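Please, structure for the following, as C-alpha cells.
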Amino acid sequence: MYGISLVAGDGIGPELADAAEAALGAACSAAGVGMRVTRVAAGDAALEAEGAALPARSLEAIRASDACLKAPVGESARDVIVFLRRELDLYANIRPARSYPGMPALREDIDLVIVRENT
C-alpha cells in the first residue's frame, strides 16, 4: 500500500486533483497496486483558514507519504512550491514532452525530457 498526499490547491486545482486521483486510482487498480490518498491543505485556502499557505500538519503528512501529488495553488504558490522544494531537497524539475499518434501537434516526432535545476 502506497501513501499519497494530495494537495488540491486553489482555482482549478481541486477539479484537477479529483481527476488525477481518479486516474491514479484506476491505474493502481489495473496494476494491482494499493493506494491510500490523504488530502492535505496548502495554498490560498489554507492561508485564509489556517494562517499558513503550507500548514505544519500538511508538511508532516507529505513527509510521511510515499509521494505527493500537487495541483495548482493560487497567489501563495511561491510559499508552497519553493518551500517544498527546499525543505524536501527536491533538486530537479523534470518535464517530459512527447508527440502521440493521432493527437494534433506542431511536430509528430517529439520525444524529449527537460531537466531543470530547482535551486
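The mean pLDDT is 93. The longest strand covers residues 92-98.
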